[in-house]
Every structure is written in C-alpha cells, then in structure tokens.
Amino acid sequence: MTENVTTPAYLTTRELADLLRIKERKVYDLAASGDVPCVRVVGKLLFPRHEVDAWIAASRSGPGTDAPPPPILAGSHDPLLEWALRESGSGLAAFFDGSLDGLERFARREAAACALHLHEPDGGWNVATLSGRLPGEPVVLVEFARRRRGLVVAAGNPLRIEGIGDLGGRRVARRQPGAASQRLFEDQARAAGLDPDGLPGPLTPSRTEADVALAVLEGKADAAFGLAGVARQFGLGFVPLIEERYDLAVWRRSWFEPQFQRLLRFLGSEPFRVRAAESGGYGIAALGAVHYNAPVG
Question: In sequence order, which residues have a C-beta less than 8 Å from that of residue 5 and are 6 or more positions away?
C-alpha cells in the first residue's frame, strides 16, 4: 500500500481492527503473542503502518506466491546466538553446519535466515558473497556481533604457541569443509608457510565452536582455530589473531514473521547484553546494523 497524507504512520488498536476486519480484543491477543509488529508508547499500543503492510503481504497466499521459508536459522555456529534462540522463545530452529553449507540452504529457501562470517578478498565480510550468490533477491544482511578469533590452546599455553606459524608438527583440531573458519584457517596457514592438510590432529572434523575447544580440553589437539568466548567458557588459553564480523542474512519476508521478530526483540534486551559481556570476545555495539539490503524492483 502507498502512504499518503491521510495514512497515519502508526495505527491504533481500533484502526488495525478495522483494517483487518477483526475484533479489537483479537488485536490485543496478536500483540501479546508477538504475531503482529507493534510498539508500546506510554502504555499505549501502536502499530507501524509500513510494517503492518509488509506483515499482511507476507501472509498472502494463492497464485503467484510462494510459501515462506521454514523457520530455520542455518549457517555458522555461535554459542551466543544459539543461547539467544533458546532464551528468546523465538520458535526458530537451528541447523548449524557452517557458513557455506548454510548459504546454500538459504539460497534454496530451506531456511529463513543464515549466519555467516565469510572473509572476502577485499578484507570485508559476507556482503560480496551473499550478493553474488543471490543477486537481486529480497534479502537483508544485518550484523550480529564482532567476534575475536584466534588459537584455542591448553590452559596456560604450555607449548608457547604465539601464532599460526608455531603450529608446524602440532596437532590441530579441524572444522568441516563447509565452515568459514576452516577456510580462513587454511588461508592463514598457507600464508604462514604451512600445509594445512599436512598438520596432524583428529581426523574427524569438529562441527561446532564448542567441539573444537573440547578437542583441546580433552588433549586430542594442541590447538584449534576458535573463538575467545569459547576458550573462556572451557577455561582454556587463547591467542588472539583477528576480529571477524558475524552477520545474519534474512529473507525480507521472513524478517516480519513472528519467530524472527521475537528474536530481534530479545537481542535488544538487557539480559542479552549482559550475556554477551559475560561471554567475552564479543562486540555488539553495531548489532542490527544493515550491511546489505538488496534493491527492490
């Protein structure tokens, strides 16, 4: 719908009830369950008209429309995001098997959103890869957090590992091929003069950030390319190397679905900010910043 001078930017409960041809009590129920976009100002519920229009459009069915992607968040694993999905009661299911795997599932519309931390040749993160894989598609890329990544080592760093160049002959825990962290580690290993395929270590890949840390904790590996927050969680040592940007790619239609809206509200809450600070290694000052928004039309 096109706004004009007679269209208010925000609707009242009665105006929304009239628009939807439902009782006002039903509007309150929709707002309480998080099923309709709304804000509360001085105790009064208001409904942003442009978000309501998008919400209505996303609910359309019939000829010329496709079913929305299932409420699944695929892609790269992150412990803080995994915790937020549970604590928010979002209803989003998680399928974490790496950025590259997640991007393909997202492109096939098997997931409503995808977590990415793909380092690109220009030094950026995620934008060129996403826009190149889905040119012109209605997707948005928003920042979740900046994360400190480096080498997870035994507590006290008894082997005195100071960088990737010190890993020659050391046992290294690996991630699966679809994990962006594995691809980045291999690039950095080659830059340091090492053959990543020739490094000893567990043959079975670790599929999550927690799994690589556990490999070090249990003495199966001397080091792993992992997150500062996970090293802290397991009481392990950490050698910082880079700061990476961890983003969420979301289908525009899915953005307005109740599940994703519940997650977004929780990400703006005090409990989430406290958890991020306690976890260590996260920067959330730019959480929600839009890094890519595909042009419409």
Answer: none
Q: Token pair for residue 57?
A: 């459009």
Identical fold, 10-58 and 66-297: no
What amino acid is encoded at 232 in this protein?
Answer: R
Contact predicate 99/111, CB 8 Å: no
C-alpha distance from residue 204 to each of 9, 198, 257 (Å): 55, 15, 37
At residue 48, the pLDDT reads 79
Say if CB 282 and CB 163 are below 8 A apart. no
For 75-124, write each residue's pLDDT tens digit. 999 999 999 999 999 999 999 999 999 999 999 999 999 999 999 998 99
**Pair 282, 147: CB distance under 8 Å:** yes
pLDDT on residue 39:
80
DSSP state of 200: -
27-45 core/surface letters (b: 16 or more CB in 10 A; e: else): beebbeebebbbeeeeeeb
What CATH number should be reported for the domain whose range is 66-297?
A: 3.40.190.290
DSSP 15-73: HHHHHHTS-HHHHHHHHHTT-S--EEETTEEEEEHHHHHHHHHHT--STT--PPPPSEE
Domain ranges of the chain: 10-58, 66-297
Secondary structure class of 125 (helix, strand, coil): strand
224-227-228-231 Cα dihedral, nearest 10 degrees: -50
How much is the pLDDT for 2? 37
The CATH number for 10-58, chosen from 1.10.10, 2.170.130, 3.40.720, 1.10.1270, is 1.10.10
Contact in structure between 92 and 259 (CB atoms under 8 Å): yes
